[in-house]
Amino acid sequence: MSNKIRIYSLFTIFIISISLQYCAPRQIIERENRDNIYFKNGEEYAGKLIAWKNDTIFFWTPDTIIKIPDTTITSVDFTQKREGDSWISKDDITDPILKNILNLQPEQWYKNGGYVTFLRKREFFLYDDGHSIEKDRVINRILQERGKSVANQKFTYLSSLEKANLLFARGITKDGNVVSIRENAIEDAPYFRTFLLYNDFRQKKFAIPEGRIGSILDYSYEITRKKDSPVRPFYANLNLGNWEPTKTDSVIVSIPNGKKIKYKTRDISEPTIIKKGKNTKYIWVVKNLPGKKRENFAPPYVDIFPRLTFAESTTWQNIDSVISSHLADSLIYPDEIQNIINNLLSCKPHSIVDSLYSLVCREIRFAPVPINASLPIPKSLKTIYQLKYANSLDKTYFLFGLLKKAGIKSSIILTRSKKMGKLVKEVPSPLQFSYAILLVELNGDTIFLDPKNDTYTEGYISGDIQGTEGLVLNSAGKFVKTPVLSSEKKDITLKATLKPDGTLLVEKNEELSGKFGVQLRRLKELTEEEKRRTIEEEVASIYPGAELLEYHLSPLSNLTKNVSLSLKYRIKNFAFSAGRYLFIKLPEINYNATSVGALERELPLFFDTYETITHKVTISIPKGFTVYHIGKNRSYNKKIIKFSSTFQDNNSQIIYTDKFSRNSLLIKPGDYNIYRTCKQLMAEVPQEILICVKKK
After folding, report:
1. Domains of the chain (ranges plus CATH)?
2. What's the whole-model pTM score?
3. Residues with Cβ within 8 Å of residue 435, at least 6 apart in sequence
4. Which segments of 547-635 does DSSP mark as H helices, in order?
5. Alpha carbon of 202 to those of 81, 198, 644: distances in Å?
6. What is the pLDDT of residues 364-418, one digit of tens each?
């Protein structure tokens, strides 16, 4: 046989084999051949890329093999094969759970939801060698326009220890068409993109196709922990249910008989425990949760819905010991820092603390990366100083190291953001902590320091952790409660002069502490021109047309003192005249009751901090005028909230004073009417009309 005949025969066999391969049943073909090609004109083909030779693509579709110039395409998507990718219609579906849900009849109790979760199943497997697997599956149906956002999902993992895989994601339309996710709808990227030191914490974001009203969205993912880590052990903190209705939500934890877990539940029944072979399963299930109405000032999500926290059994003493053992390892001092400390050693301890606190706040930028989004082991002082950014643990550790070198004793406290819900002390795990602060012992006193950034006055700690419990490192598992600061204050004094033509000249002084001071200190990053423009905008927001005349800011970089703002501005046509009378309202008193429009609440009112606001307004009336009418005094005094205001006629002046204080972080629904009544009373004050009359 000649070479030409042999080549012809081989080519014929190749074509026959290709034909046989693609004459297989449709379901098999589409499971094994599902690449996507996207054209510049917006069209797309699904099939399989056979070859790419020079500038031509050979692409198989169910109908034929086509040649495509590569200049006509934008991209080729080599789709990862996932379970159910071959399904085109609901008749192709072989998954019994999904088939059953597709056959469910609508139920009245969830019809007003944006979407309904038919199934959420979370399974956790712990193995003898310490590695673990988490597998989640969720099936939702979109009911209304507001529920479409459920098509956008994400989950997080720590890439240095874990491997994450999206098993499948698909949409099933009302007509029964099944559309599986494409690779270009999936993104895997660092969660904190701008902070490379912490980029092993990643997120997979994906958009499930067919996110339309009536569609069912079904997805599942798996996270595999490659190895056990004593600082990142087997642990989960979960909520069951959601703002939207949930039909079935379950959690299954499977562990070897030789291991133990600790768990704590809230608003969930005790688990069903099944021992089978070498494993024990703990099963929690809730059904038919109606969802909740979103309300302003609501507590953190974690504290609203039924909650389950579990972890492999350990103690707080052991956790303290494991983390504390790493503290000394990272005390590597840069030469520049060593020189700064040496120059401070002759100073008094208070001055050393002031200087080093300011240095850390100023020099190290805060990275908003929770402790539990990384390994809770501090980076070295040298690394932190070189990179000039750090999360709360590393930044606090940096200050801890400097103080230690200067001979000042301090302790790192690991605590938990209120947004993550309350600490569950019954389930010890380092993954419960998200934030760190420092407890300094100085001349018999203890001072809490939070070096988060250079807007924090020394002694101020973030409202997000005020009143929370924290683990003190190197204390054999001791806990301490952070203070709720009473210094969250805004004291405002206004001296206003009213002119006969209705113009008002205002001299204002604000003394700010706590969170109010933090907000004002942010101006220090601006140029003088930007500062003035910002203050002009604030003045204009008080009264349209108000003109800033001058302003003065206290030194914003001095973190040992509170901050203040003084300014002068003019408001033309502030007063309304009618004959001999001038009518005015109180300047800058803008209390309102918009937050308490509802008659009742389902959820408590939640606040990070206490709050106190005072005003003293002195209005000097024009010469030749006398006070004709002032407002009435008001008072409301309850344990959780207080308000009082007074008006005084002082011959040529009207003097107004008030004080508002809220002394509770959580106001129960039963006390909502107390809070509402106070706010409504306060809202009456800006409506008062003050009247001056010209003397005859």
Report:
1. 3-77 (2.30.30.100), 90-313 (2.60.40.3140), 318-481 (3.10.620.30), 489-694 (2.60.120.1130)
2. 0.85
3. 370, 371, 392, 393, 414, 415, 416, 417, 462, 464, 465
4. none
5. 23, 9, 51
6. 999 999 999 999 999 999 999 999 999 999 999 999 999 999 999 999 999 999 9
